[in-house]
């Protein structure tokens, strides 16, 4: 999970927990007074109706019941033995209302949410007759203003709004927290690609981010200075080494009479010169200029440098019109090193000749060019190490005369051109290098 989403979920969880805690607290604090108030209002209506009914005789009671029904939407009806009703006390709030009604009206008071299928807050009460001490039973239906209960739709609406605001706030806060880190990651990726001019804002208000940005900018400046010093040093080394090598070659040609010794000395000088070229190629700054390059003619040109068919034979099946976005010099260096690697280490065990096959496939905006030899391949556990500078895959390769930089140069060149290198063993033997480059459209 990325830092943004981790921050978002933690903030959302914190804020949602806070909203829920406040909601529960407000409900707990509001429940008692609201239940008491609702019960007292309803009990007041019942007591008013009880007092009026108690002082009226049977004849005037009918008119009184009609008059009470018209007042404030309340309704008083006689309670019959056959009446059916549903209890009002189903949750914490309604139970508290019921307790308060019984404490005011007496233990025989009944709170119901419907009577004979008619919904509302119904209160059952009784009136004692003074003549015979018997009781008359009535129902009072409170009007809408006195219907006690929790408005769940309103509660859910405001709770949903609160959680939605929580999510939006979490996204905004997480974005603000992660913005400088995202800028730092982007600048670091640009430096990894060789752009040492990347700089971050050193005037940001957050002190920790400001210190990180200042440290990053100092590092970028130091890297740029080191890169510049390295380029100057390599140019000097190349010049200083090649000058005595040229003198050695001249002295060898003029002073050594033994032809075999002269030939061996010239080969050693050529090898030293080639090793210097490898070092220079690997250390070359990463400033490739990408443009459309025809791959097939470039392969043919580099393959023509390997003229000895007793050592290597190169076959290309790349379409003549295949174009990729690349630096022509860098791409030529890639194929040159792959061919040289195959010539040294990819020879067949039967023929002693390195048979190299070049094929390609198109996949979306990419072209994958495969360069395969038919040698013995490499141990699977060592494949990932082949692009490490100075690494050789086995004992036989240790005795080779190369600098151990060929595949490292290939990988670095591919990175400069925005491509990738993947090395694998072929199913029927040999090493395959897959070059993934952007197609030129």
Automatic annotation (TrEMBL):
InterPro entries, sorted: 2C_sensor_his_kinase (IPR050980), HAMP_dom (IPR003660), HATPase_C_sf (IPR036890), HATPase_dom (IPR003594), His_kinase_dom (IPR005467), HisK_dim/P_dom (IPR003661), HisK_dim/P_sf (IPR036097), RisS_PPD (IPR032408)
GO molecular function, one term: phosphorelay sensor kinase activity
PROSITE patterns: HAMP, HIS_KIN
Main enzyme class: transferase
This enzyme's EC code(s): 2.7.13.3
Pfam families from the UniProt entry: HAMP (PF00672), HATPase_c (PF02518), HisKA (PF00512), RisS_PPD (PF16524)
Substrates-to-products reaction catalysed: ATP + protein L-histidine = ADP + protein N-phospho-L-histidine
UniProt membrane topology term: Multi-pass membrane protein
Recorded GO CC terms: plasma membrane
Chain ranges passing through the membrane: 155-177
Keywords, comma-separated and alphabetical: ATP-binding, Cell membrane, Kinase, Membrane, Nucleotide-binding, Phosphoprotein, Transferase, Transmembrane, Transmembrane helix
Residues covered by the Histidine kinase domain: 236-441
Domain (HAMP) ranges: 175-228
Entry's localization field: Cell membrane
SMART domains according to UniProt: HAMP, HATPase_c, HisKA
Major localization listed first in the record, in broad terms: membrane
Keyword Isomerase: no
The name this protein goes by in its record: histidine kinase
Species this chain originates from: Rubrivivax rivuli
